[in-house]
Amino acid sequence: MAKKVPVQVTLNGEERAEFVESGATLLNALRGRFGDTSPKGGCHQGTCGACSVIIDGELKLSCLTLAEACDGAEIVTTAGLATNSAMHPLQRAFAEGFAAQCGFCTPGMIMAAKALLDQKPDPTREDVIEALSGNICRCTGYEPIIQAVLAAAAASPHKAA
Amino acid sequence: MNDAVGIGARVKRKEDRRFIIGSGRYTDDIRHDNQAYAAFVRSPHAHAKVVGIDASAAEASEGVVAVLTGRQLVDDKIGNLICGWAITSRDGTPMKMGPWSALATDRVRYVGDAVVAVIADTPALARRAAEKVVVEYEELPAVVSATRALEPGAPQVHDLAPGNLIFDWVIGDEAATDAGLRQAAHVTEMRITNNRLSPNAMEPRSALAVYDPAEGHYTLYTTSQNPHVARLVLSAFYNVAPENKLRVVAPDVGGGFGSKIYIYPEEITCLWASMKTGRSVKWTADRSEAFMTDAHGRDHDTVARMGFDKDGRITGFRVDTVANLGAYMSLFSSCVPTYLYATLLSGQYDIGNIFCNVKAVYTNTVPVDAYRGAGRPEACYVIERMMETAAREMNMNPAELRRRNFITQFPHQTPVIMNYDTGGFGAGLDAALRAADVASFPARKAEAARRGKLRGIGYSCYIEACGIAPSAAVGSLGAGVGLWESAEVRVNPVGTIEVFTGSHSHGQGHETTFAQIIAGRFGLPMENISIIHGDTDRVQFGMGTYGSRSGAVGMSAIVKAMDKVEAKVKKIAAHALEAAEDDIVVEGGAVKVAGTDRQMLWHEVSLAAYTGHNLPAGMEPGLKEDSFYDPVNFTFPAGTYIAEVEVDPDTGVTEVVRFTAADDFGTLINPMIVEGQVHGGIAQGIGQALLENVVYSENGQLMTGSYMDYAMPRADHVPSYTIEHTTTPCPGNPLGIKGCGEAGAIGSPPAVINAITDAIGNNDLQMPATPPVVWAAIRAAARPAAAA
Description:
Number of domains of chain A: 2
Distance between the termini of chain A: 41 Å
Radius of gyration of chain B: 27 Å
Number of strands of chain B: 28
Oligomer: heterodimer
Number of helices of chain A: 5
CATH superfamily of the largest domain in chain B: Aldehyde oxidase/xanthine dehydrogenase, molybdopterin binding domain
CATH architecture of the largest domain in chain B: 2-Layer Sandwich
Number of strands of chain A: 5
CATH topology of the largest domain in chain B: Aldehyde Oxidoreductase, domain 4
Helix content of chain A: 25-40%
Largest interface: A-B, 58 and 61 residues
Shape of chain A: globular
Strand content of chain B: 15-25%
Helix content of chain B: 25-40%
């Protein structure tokens, strides 16, 4: 079998350790070993954003990130945003603003939006468009997503984290 | 009635929570303990003979469970893939369906054609072993352009289709149309291409096949828009499993747009491989595999001639189209460029004479089938480019030329089969003109010019046929299936309701809209109503979701089943309350004797139905009704779209700066969801007009196999939209619904191209209008020889 390597991460605030195949992407490790299927594989080529996660505070494409390179990292995914069944302000804004249709790009969109609001809690429309331009959505035409991110920023200024 | 959630209410979606917290459950999210993975060895050649396959190194590779070939598939009597809609050529001969085996046996016909399947313990091991399969090919000349494929001496894709001609089909009166063109005061003639697109649902196709040897039973989890059709075809034609031993589940599906209607080689192979290996077998495409194997859309090459009398009224419309169907006939490929295309060539206009000839052609490219709109965008693009061009040539206002030709009386029989039941085309145009503030366009154009930008405006008045479709009608036109829909409404003893629908939701929000019509009608809370779909073990049968049919057909079936539930509820309550059945009304969650204070609550009637203690004599207990609803006609959504663009003359970069849509979808159940459908459709149409294009090299290599090469619309490509609605309720179904899923993709491309050609002053422009294409068109218009 392919060599397995231990990877220890803080995933959505929880200490986790798994053996992953050497060379596996973080996307496949999260979905296959860590049981978090919220990051989606839309292209496996770093071009659609569906697999976006936040690693040590930075937005990353998990399909282009080696799992073993994340040893010791703090990883946040969309599955970790809601606490005690209360949705994160961004998630509430997505639900209120009809920002999901098929839902497949949604976790990546939320991660990209969170990374933006963490850095820039009061973004302009252009900031939002730029922050989302690495994420492809085939259903919504983008406008409701852009509006949802702006609404989340307006609703919880400087508290987006 | 419960107006807060009923018809017309902007109810937030019930399904959103699971998507937004990352708990959506898509096919690739499902895992089984003994799961193995399939990887496919695909043809690197566009056209070749398969001379030999050496799988020995792959079989010896680590973790390999099985290496499966087309020969084994044939030995196990797995059937060829089929096209389910028979088209007859003008000379009376049937269409020529070339053999398509799930795994190629002796010949490959496009880059990506599956040849060998490797099953292994992990995806990585399967891929590694697949690379060790040695397939010996003898390369053959390839052809990728449909017009080139029709030329003498072109490479032959299928032996049984000489000249690569699948069918040569006609509709309409050729002699009368040509006479109408001869009598015309003005004839507009154009060559119009409709670019080849890849649907690109964000969830790649995936299949997980589970064989249970104890029962001889198969389960297929798959990315399908129509799991029952998949089960039917897999059992009846592909002979993979008996229908009663095959369960097909389409769980959350991440977009379809047509590409997930069909049953592909990978699903067939996974089911078969699961039986052969005794393992659950999963396959999930990556994006390059999706570009290489998902059915493409469009790819028409058309010459059109439209004649006008001196007053600008259309005297005849002749359309000659070559449709590229790719290397094999996909499931519904034949009806897309025929009955979903040419039957819409009357547009919104009163045209006495229409004739259309369609030649469908094999090429060494990915099979082409329905993609959002499916034939109707191609028809709309031809008509609306013609109308805009004719107006320019005749120095008429393009909106007024259209208005002069609008159909104003309904029902209206077109010369190409369709009978429009209702519409209000003038009202739609007026609404769009107002909302787009066309009156101030000259000022906006002048302002743009001061910034060095070329600003243009373009119109598109689309019509489409949805609510697919009356079964007897489509049967007479060659369809292999009926196109009704089923629903079962189960009222539980405690009064909650489960609706089992044959429609499938992959982004459309059925769990919300379908529940709304029940909650609104009976006055029940939304949370008491569950919509169940996508599982052949739970829903008896259904035809699935495509062609904007789930509202007009799927919801109509639910209404019919609700009628039966209500009738039984009234009988039970009338008996218990000792009242006349005619005096009973159901409202506000109660079943009442009208004009009195006597009533039973909804859940009391439900419980009474199940206890059976006090039912009318002879009534069976229980409260569960079903319906198979077969529509009486297509529905005809229509509207006017107006695009405004700004072109940078130095770079050719086009920006869509305003986009106005005025749609008539009949009754809207949830306007929020309808607007979402329009937004998404327009974004896809803008994508087609400006960005998207599948490109093959001369020898059949796919040049656009990733998002680095195939430009998708992103957040910075699309404007915010102005959406208006006009309403003429559809008389053909109980809710008055017409359908809204495809309009945006149908109506928007001609509006955008008409706007660009208006801006740059050169009408010679094909999609996609990428910056180099637009830049070259600007330069061509500037040359004196090309100046019009």
